[in-house]
Amino acid sequence: MKQEQETPIAPVAGATLLTAIDFYFDFSSPYGYLASEQIDALAARFGRQVNWHPVLLGAAFKITGAALPVRQPLKSEYFLRDFARSARYQAVPFVQPMNFPLSTQHAARAFLWLHEQDAIAAKGLAHAIFRAYFTAGRDIDNIDTVLDIASALGIPRAPLAEALAAVSLKERLRHEMDRALARGVFGSPFFIVDGEGFWGADRLPQLERWLAEGGF
Amino acid sequence: MKQEQETPIAPVAGATLLTAIDFYFDFSSPYGYLASEQIDALAARFGRQVNWHPVLLGAAFKITGAALPVRQPLKSEYFLRDFARSARYQAVPFVQPMNFPLSTQHAARAFLWLHEQDAIAAKGLAHAIFRAYFTAGRDIDNIDTVLDIASALGIPRAPLAEALAAVSLKERLRHEMDRALARGVFGSPFFIVDGEGFWGADRLPQLERWLAEGGF
Question: Cβ neighbours of residue A23 under 8 Å, at least 6 residues apart?
Fold first, then answer.
């Protein structure tokens, strides 16, 4: 207990000023997965919350003109090595999926649907989807796989299946994507804290210093 | 002195097995510059030498299909912030050049020419060129600027000017580029140590652990 302020009139004033960290990721992104295993604990050390935002990188790639690294000559072999090495470096379990990359709209929509009801449960689902893909190679592009993963967490299957088929949830994801692009998100993982963007799991050390020092 | 081998028949055997680190960079690459200020000291802590290899990223980009980040929508603003922030993070002096990016064939050729005569002096020239560009914004695409920078280091101007105009040095750089591409180099900085490739100044922590543990 080192709090030595003389007059703690508003002892939580500082805490309430700490805005949440926005964490954008694609469920098909290995570096997004690595970040997902670290960001909440890192943020908590500095009293920060993290808002998770699944995005579809394809939409951003259309704007930037980027191609998927694994589809590019020279880069593909490197990236497959770097995914696994970066996971070992961070001590995060990782097995390269055979079906890679894949489309993640069902996974992203399931997250959004659950998030409206229970933000904590939605993070649990996100972890389960990421781990099913990057440790067990499950085909999370398949809507039934997403439903199976959710069911295993006790999430009612029928309402989620119904929501995934509805137009409203598709429009919700499109709206989320538009907002992300408007904020400059072009890759995964992408973090925004106090207006400052950080791209890549390898920017977590800079993000950490930013939180520790209030910018640098 | 913790060496407790009973029969040190070949006490320097381990040391002689340590191969050099290959460090590939483009003189127009901010992250290449940041790495250039760190790699030799890092390597020296593990008894490693570093062989410096200037490359022209344009040739690699033609193969990978990559576009320069600063020419891509969404990414350009981010990268300009990240260059400067990463420099502050590494405590390396940095001023974003106005003329950016630029062509670096004269700088690369000057390095190769000097390297054939004096590898140490060539590293000194590389540092001087990088710093002239990334701390003083000098136009290192200009052949006279390269000659000025070299002259300031005591390198005879006339022989270098003659070499830079000769076909043989141009072919030498082309040959170096072919070798780099054949080894999978597609970006700057790019490191190869014991057959393992590391791309980016942000991979120096992984490279460091690799050196410390002999792979991981």
Answer: A35, A36, A39, A50, A51, A52, A53, A189, A190, A191
Does the structure show a pLDDT above 60 at B25? Answer: yes
The SS3 of residue B68 is: coil
The answer, for B175 touching chain A at a CB cutoff of 8 Å, is no
B88 touches chain A (CB under 8 A): yes
Q: Is the pLDDT of residue B46 over 60?
A: yes
Q: What per-residue confidence (pLDDT) applies to B5?
A: 43
Q: Token pair 């890192």 is at which residue?
A: A42
Asked if pLDDT for residue B4 goes beyond 90, the answer is no
User: What's the rounded Cα separation, in Å, for the pair A139 and A141?
Assistant: 5
A153 and B CB contact within 8 Å: no
Chain A residues whose beta carbon lies within 8 Å of the beta carbon of residue B64: 72-75
Asked if B186 lies within 8 A of A75 by C-beta distance, the reply is yes
At A72 the pLDDT is 72
What is the distance between the alpha carbons of residues B131 and B40, in angstroms, rounded to a whole number? 16
Distance, in Å, from the CA atom of B112 to the CA atom of B176, rounded to the nearest integer, reads 9
Q: What is the mean pLDDT of residues A136-142?
A: 98
Ordered domains of chain A (ranges, CATH): 20-213 (3.40.30.10)
